[in-house]
């Protein structure tokens, strides 16, 4: 009996330790044109389930501190899918510094500073070069607080 | 977007390039291949109490790439029509079918004579039909061996035209002998996109219905014509347009009557004209039958010419009216009154558009009282 309780407590402890402080949810949407009741064309955002090349998709990453502890140095990283091209200027996140990688996530820099080396020469990175987007929270994420990071990309 | 490192090591770059090629149709001008699933997963790194915590990974959110149906049907030679001669065969106009969808497609083809009055490639309105009209598809795409289409071969539909691939289609026609200079015959080719993925002509395309999102690839109509493209090219008849006028004038012997009475000397004139703008008429042979009631007057028997006068516009020249084969001046008159002017070797006659050729000779109307 004591052994079983001990094991149960141990399992509980392990489970508690494995439970994350943060919950992170991602959604993807796209613009849809529809005709409203007045017969006019209007746009709205819908879940992107089917997309054709050339369309823009909008990603939203919602992260919530579901623990009782404050989290700091919170950094959200999103690798851009192979078939997508990051939409210049689309990354946003209140209270966050946004940086980019053009080398598969090895190094990050602000958009204005991002450079690539091609054939021995260095040039400014373009949207096509971006492999990752990263949001760095300036302040702590308090218990129960939520942050939202967004970016858009075009399907090649 | 490329995931490969840009810090260039030559070996690494070559490997990446090969890998990219092997991955196949991922980065085309036509776009990501239809049916591809695109995933996105974010991760969060954070600290609690100064201790780095295990990264949290978000859910993976995905969407499927639909088929963006888009293609063009272009004239290979635009701004001119194929010149045809009446009676000529196997003329052709050529079209290029280019698939810029993000998926292979089949294409059903249809061919029709252009209706009268419809403009043909900006060159004029259709006013005639080629005697036969049929099409043939090249045996391979433009980026492959791209052989010329062969009339009578590959005449059904375009099977499995790849994304970013183009193929040539020829429309063949024959020109009936009765066609006249300047006639225009248009050919209208229609291509309709169909499902690909199996041998044989694929099914018609269903267009995307946003309320009916199922597991299969849906089709988005980009060219706005329900996956149909039509192109018109055509043929123009370029031939000679000849007219012949024969007349006579009384020279003398009419006893002042002004009538062609027995004994009257007449001068015949045959004028062959080719209408302005028409093609050259070549290898012309003029034949005339001198009636048995007339006596052909040579230079030695009272005629004004020795014996026949011809003028191609550059001034009159003469040729003799002797039996065929006697000389090689390209003119002859046999014992039965057959007058022949023109010979491919000895007197080739060509009349260009807007020019004419004149033949003159003199005869006397037989006087029964004086005929030996």
Summarize the structure.
The complex is a heterodimer of chains A (156) and B (372). Chain A is built from one helix and eleven strands. Chain A is mainly β.
The CATH class designation of chain A is: Mainly Beta
CATH superfamily of the largest domain in chain B: Immunoglobulins
For this structure, the quaternary state is heterodimer
Greatest interface and its participating residue counts:
A-B, 57 and 48 residues
Structural class of chain A: mainly beta
Distance between the first and last residues' Cα of chain B: 107 Å
Number of helices of chain B: 1
**Range of strand content of chain A:** over 45%
Rg of chain A, rounded, reads 21 Å
> Mind summarizing the main beta sheet of chain A?
5 strands, antiparallel
Number of domains of chain B: 2
Order of helices and strands of chain B: HEEEEEEEEEEEEEEEEEEEEEEEEE
Shape of chain A: flat
Description of the structure:
The complex is a heterodimer of chains A (156) and B (372). Chain A has 156 residues and is mostly beta strands. Chain A has a single domain, classed as Immunoglobulin-like (Sandwich). Chain A is built from one helix and eleven strands, in the order H-E-E-E-E-E-E-E-E-E-E-E. In chain A, the strands form three sheets. In chain A, strands 2-1-4-11-6 form a five-stranded antiparallel sheet, with no helix packed on it. With 372 residues, chain B is mainly beta. Chain B contains one helix and 25 strands. Chain B has one helix at residues 10-23; strands at residues 37-40, 43-48, 51-52, 56-57, 61-65, 67-69, 71-75, 82-84, 91-99, 105-113, 132-137, 158-161, 165-174, 184-194, 219-221, 228-237, 242-252, 265-274, 286-289, 294-297, 308-311, 316-319, 331-333, 338-341, 356-365. In chain B, the strands form seven sheets. In chain B, strands 17, 18, 20, 21, 22 and 25 form a six-stranded antiparallel sheet that branches. Chain B has a five-stranded mixed sheet with strand order 8-16-14-10-12, with no helix packed on it. In chain B, strands 7-9-13-11 form a four-stranded antiparallel sheet, with no helix packed on it. The interface between A and B is large, with 57 and 48 residues. Strand 5 (72-79) of chain A pairs antiparallel with strand 2 of chain B.
């Amino acid at each position: 009996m004591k052994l079983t309780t001990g094991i149960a407590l141990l399992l509980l402890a392990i489970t508690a330790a494995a439970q994350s402080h943060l919950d992170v949810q991602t959604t993807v949407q796209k613009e849809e044109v529809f005709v409203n009741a007045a017969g006019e064309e209007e746009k709205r955002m819908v879940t992107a389930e089917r997309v054709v090349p050339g369309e823009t998709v909008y990603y939203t990453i919602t992260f919530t501190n579901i623990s009782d502890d404050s989290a700091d140095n919170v950094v959200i990283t999103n690798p851009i899918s192979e078939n997508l091209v990051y939409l210049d200027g689309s990354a946003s996140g209140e209270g966050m510094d946004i940086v980019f990688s053009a080398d598969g996530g090895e190094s990050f820099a602000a958009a204005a500073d991002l450079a690539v080396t091609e054939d021995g020469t260095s040039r400014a990175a373009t949207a096509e070069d971006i492999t990752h987007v990263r949001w760095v929270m300036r302040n702590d994420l308090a218990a129960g607080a939520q942050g939202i990071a967004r970016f858009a990309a075009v399907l090649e | 977007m490329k995931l490969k490192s840009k810090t260039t090591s030559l070996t690494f770059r070559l490997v990446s390039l090969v890998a990219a090629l092997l991955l196949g149709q991922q980065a085309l001008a036509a776009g990501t291949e239809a049916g591809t699933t695109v995933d996105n997963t974010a991760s969060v790194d954070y600290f609690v109490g100064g201790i780095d915590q295990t990264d949290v990974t978000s859910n993976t959110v995905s969407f499927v790439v639909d088929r963006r149906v888009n293609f063009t049907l272009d004239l290979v030679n635009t701004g001119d029509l194929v010149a045809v001669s009446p009676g000529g065969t196997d003329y052709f106009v050529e079209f290029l079918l280019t698939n810029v969808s993000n998926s292979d497609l089949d294409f059903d083809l249809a061919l029709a004579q252009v209706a009268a009055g419809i403009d043909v490639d900006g060159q004029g309105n259709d006013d005639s039909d080629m005697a036969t009209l049929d099409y043939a598809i090249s045996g391979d795409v433009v980026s492959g061996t791209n052989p010329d289409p062969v009339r009578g071969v590959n005449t059904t539909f375009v099977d499995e035209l790849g994304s970013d691939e183009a193929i040539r289609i020829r429309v063949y026609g024959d020109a009936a002998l009765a066609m006249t200079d300047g006639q225009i015959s248009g050919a209208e080719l229609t291509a309709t996109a169909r499902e690909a993925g199996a041998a044989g002509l694929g099914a018609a395309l269903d267009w995307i219905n946003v309320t009916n999102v199922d597991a299969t690839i849906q089709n988005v109509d980009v060219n706005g014509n329900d996956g149909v493209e039509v192109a018109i090219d055509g043929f123009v008849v370029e031939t000679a347009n000849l007219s012949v006028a024969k007349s006579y004038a009384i020279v003398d012997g009419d006893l002042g009557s002004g009538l062609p009475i027995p004994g009257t000397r007449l001068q015949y004139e045959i004028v062959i004209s080719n209408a302005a703008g028409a093609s050259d008429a070549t290898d012309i042979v003029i034949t005339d039958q001198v009636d048995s009631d007339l006596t052909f007057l040579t230079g030695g028997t009272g005629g004004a010419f020795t014996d026949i006068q011809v003028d191609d516009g550059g001034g009159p020249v003469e040729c003799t009216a002797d039996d065929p084969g006697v000389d090689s001046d390209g003119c002859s008159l046999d014992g039965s009154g057959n007058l022949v002017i023109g010979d491919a070797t000895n007197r080739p006659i060509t009349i260009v558009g807007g020019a004419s050729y004149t033949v003159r000779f003199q005869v006397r109307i037989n006087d029964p009282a004086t005929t030996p």
